[in-house]
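User: Modeling request: complex.
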Amino acid sequence: MIVFTPRNKPSKNWIFLAPTLSIILTVILGGFIFAFLGYNPGETLYHIFISPFTRIDRISDVFVKACPLIIIGTGLIFCFKANVWNIGAEGQFIIGALLAGSFGLLFPEMDTKFLLLIMIFIGFLGGALWAFIPAILKTKLNVNEILVSLMLVYIAMLLIDFVVRGPLRDPMSFGFPLTKAYPEGALINKIPIPGIGFLGQLHYGVISVFILVPIAWVIINKTLLGFQIKVLGSAPKATSFAGFKEKRITMIVLLLSGGLAGIAGVIEVSANMGQLQPEISFGYGFTAIIVVFLGRLNPIGIILAGIIIATVKLGADNAQMAIGIPKVVTGLFEGILLFFLLTGETLQKYQIAWKNYRS
Amino acid sequence: MDALILTIIATSIPLLLAASGELIAEKSGVLNLGVEGMMLSGAVGAFGAVLWLGNPYFGIIAGAISGILMASVFSIFTINFMTNQVATGLGLTIFATGFSGLAGAPLVGKTIPSLPKIEVYLLSDIPLIGNIFFKQDLIAYISILLIILITFFLNSSKPGIVLRAVGDNHNNAHSIGYPVKKIRWLATCFGGMCAGLGGAYIPLLLTPHWSEGMTSGRGWIAIALVVFASWIPWRIIVGAFLFGGITIAQFVGQARGWPIPSQILSMMPYIATIIALTIISGRFSKNKSVVPESLGKPFVDVA
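Assistant: Request completed. Predicted assembly structure:
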C-alpha cells in the first residue's frame, strides 16, 4: 500500500515541479476526456492552448483577460492565506462595478479627469461592502463565510439584472437591457502603440496590475498584518497566544479581497464595455480561485497563473467559434488542474513510498 | 390548493435528497462542497440515459451512478491524497459544471418523458391527503424513505454509530481499529448517490429538458440545509419544504402580478438561506456539540 511520511520541511523541488506537472497532466487528461466525448483531442487542444498565441493581438488579449483574474486573485491571497474562504468574489466584482457605474451614470456633472479614480474608489467600497456581509456574520455570529459569500453571488447577479433592465435602463436602447454609455471620464482607453495602432484590446487598466500586485507583495511579506494573516492560516491557536485579534484579521482580509474584486469589476466594465449590462463578469470571480492556487498564494506567481488561465479562457472562445465546443469546457480544465495542484501540495508535505506489508 | 402543495413538494425533493446525502458525508467528517457539481452530473446523466434508452426509470439509475462517480473523484483526492476538502469541493463543482456542459451539449433542445406517478392502491383516493402523499413518483417515495432509514441508521445501528465516531474523532476511531478511510469513502459515495438522484429529479420531473447549470445553486442551498437542520435528518424535511415554499412563492408572486420586480422575488431563496444560516449559527456559538468534530479535517494515516 501507499505510505505517507511527513517531511521535516516542505520539499523545495515540488514548489515549481507541482504546478508544471499539474498543467502537463491536466492537458493529457483533458485530451482523453475530449476523445471519450467524441471530439478530436488534437484539434481541440490546439485551439485551447496554442491558438491564443498565434497572433500578436491575441497575445495581448491574453494579458487583457488575465487582468481581472490577477486583481481578484491578489485579494483572494489574503483570504486563503488566513484560511478564510471567500468564494463570492464574483458577487463583489459585480457590486463594485454596479455601484461605480451607477455613480458615473447618475452624476454626469462629475465627468472630469478624476471621475475614473472616484469610480475605482467606489468600486473598492462596493466590493468591500458586499464582502462585509459574510465578514460581519462570520466574526459576530460564526456563520459559515463560504455559503454566505456564495449566496451573495446569486443575489448580486439578480441585482445588476434588475438595475440594468429597470431604473438605469437607457430609454433609447431599443428594448435592449443596457444602460446609457459611460461619460468620457469614466472610460479606460486602449493603449496606442506607435506604428501599429491598437494591439487587440490592450488598455491602460492593465497598469493597475503592476501597482496592486507589488503592494500586495509588500503587505504579505513585509508588514505585521501579513505576518498575522499567515499565523492565522497556519496555526490558528497561536494567533490568540500571540495577542493577535483573529476576528479583526478575518474582517480585514475579507474587506480587502472584496474591495480588490470591486476594483477589477470597475476596470473591466470601463475598459471593455463602456456601459452596464446584465452580464459583466463571466465567472472571473470563480476562475480567480484556481488562479490563486496555481500561483501558490504568491502575488508574483499569480501573474503567471493568471496568464495561463486566461489563455485557456480565450482558447475556449476560439474552440467554440472554430469547432463548436461549449465554452464551459474551461471549467473542466480548471477543475482537473485544481485537483492536481492540491495533490502537489500533499506531495510537498509528505514523502510517499510503496510498502508491502507481508507477515 | 393541493396543486400548490404538490409543486412545493416537487421543488423540495432535489434539496431533500442532496441534503440527506451531504448529511451522511458530513457525519463521517467529510465536507463535500461539490454537491452542486454532483447534482449537475446526475441531471445530465439521467437526461442522457432517458433520451438514449427511452424509459424514465433508467434516468434514476444513471443519475445515481453519475453522482457516485463524481463523489469517487472527490474521495480519491481528499481521502487518499489528503487534499484540502474545501478547495477540492470547489474544484469538483467547477469540474462537473464543465463536464456536464460538455457532455450535455448535444442534448440541448431535446425533451424527455417525465417519471410516472405511482398511485398507492385505495390510499390515493383519500381526498387531499391521497393526492399529496400517495400519488407521487418513485424518487419522492425514495427520498422520504431515505430520511427514515438515515435516522434509524445514525441513531440505532452499529455501523451508524461507527460512522459518527469516525466523524467526531478520526484518530480515536482509527486507534480502536475502524477503517476511517473506507468508511469515509462509502459515506462520500452515498452522498454522491443522493446528490445525483436529486439532480436527476430536475430533468425527470421539473423541467423535461437539459440546460447548462440547470441546478442553479440548489446544491449550495442543500449544503446550507444541513447546517440549518443542525445535522438532524428529520429537520432536513422541514428545511427543504420551507425552501421549496419560498421558491414557489416567487413564481406565484410573478403570476399574480405582485408589485415587486421579478429579480427581487428570485433573490428570496438565497436571502432566506443567509437568514436561516445566521439564526442557526448564532445558536451554535453557544452549543458547538452538534457539529461533527473532525468535519473538514483530513485524516493523516502516517507510517
